[in-house]
Input
Amino acid sequence: MSDHQEHHDDGHHVNYFKIYIILLVLLVISVVGPIVADVIREVTGVAWVATLLTLVTAFGIAVYKAKLVIENFMHLKWEKRIMKWMLTTSLLLMALMFAGISPDVMNHEGNNWRNVAAEAAVARGIDSGEEEVVEEDTAPAVEVAFDVESMFNIVCATCHGSEGLGDGPAGAALDPRPASFADPEFWETRDRDRIVQVITNGAASVGGSPLMVAWSASFDEGQIQEFADYVQTFRPN
Amino acid sequence: MAFPKPQATLRSATGIPTGRLAVWWLLASEVVIFGGVLGSYLMHRLGHPEWADAAIHTNTWIGATNTFVLLTSSFTAVLAHQAAERGDGKTAAKFLLFTIGGAFTFLGIKSYEWWYEISHGYTITSNGFWAFYYTAAGLHALHVIAGAIIMGIVAFDAWRNLELQRVELIGIYWHFVDVVWIFLFPLLYIAK
Output
């Protein structure tokens, strides 16, 4: 550790101006790189070269720029080793977080679970593309061929159960639990308009539980009518 | 000074002046704060190919200009430190004022950028991408504001040759804010 003595006067002989100029040159490269990558993609059609170039110029250079600033401007190069360990520990914690959480976030389905909201967001985003933001409230629909039964089983059955009994794997844990659509009492106080209303705007709109959310952002009117029809098939006659 | 200084600011039991140790300590926690936001952004971005359609609407030139502004302000911050090491408080204060100018320029550009985007309908609730965009850059902007205020206080003292060791401390913080932006820039602007 003897090299650490007398480390912190102005004696590190860093040419700050030179570092600054290098940083600016790197900035220019990181902006130009992806533009060149686009041209390569257009002209040659080889996507991976372009992607690699973008990754290197954008992120590789960011890492190198950060290194220059941290070492030379923050003087971490001359700092006691314990500080480097402390910062490394923070970074390791972040890596641990990423490793632990990202598999669940990046995948939208796994053993016995399915992230319906994320799947719907992907489907919605991909087919509406840019308009999505602009016409936010025109109900961008999930355009994959709509089949009410399978859609009910994917989206609603987690809470309502595929027989509509309110016994889906997630439903059991809810408070209040979704009522059984096969219960005659349930139908005594409901009519078709009410069902459509709840599916469209959520149960909170009729004073019910916010856990039954509004589906109008995911499905269009016709599809919601189909859900209402389907829910009514559970009704005992 | 009407009362004696807290002993801790003069001591360096670890071999590092305690003030500087504290700044590093703060930054270690900032690494976790920004790391958490950026790590979450990254994993969601990888899981949502459609975010690329939102990302094309961010303005790379504005992002690049702001990167230039922050790099320049980091440069003046380190020059302020150099002057403080020489015991030249006035010069240090001047360079700090340049740095504060950088902070305001950055915030001005950012305000224009956000105003433009929000008035075109891209708000924090538009979708996941915009939610992260405003959260990450907003958190960063708060750090820029805090840095500018502290630099003002440090510069005020430095002008009268007081507390010159603080010039280095605020500099280290400021470079960190710069480093965070160095990563935000490719994440939010370049990766389309």
Summary: Residues 16-44 of chain A form the longest helix (29 residues). Chain A is about 60% helix and 0% strand. The CA atoms of residues 1 and 60 of chain A lie 31 Å apart.
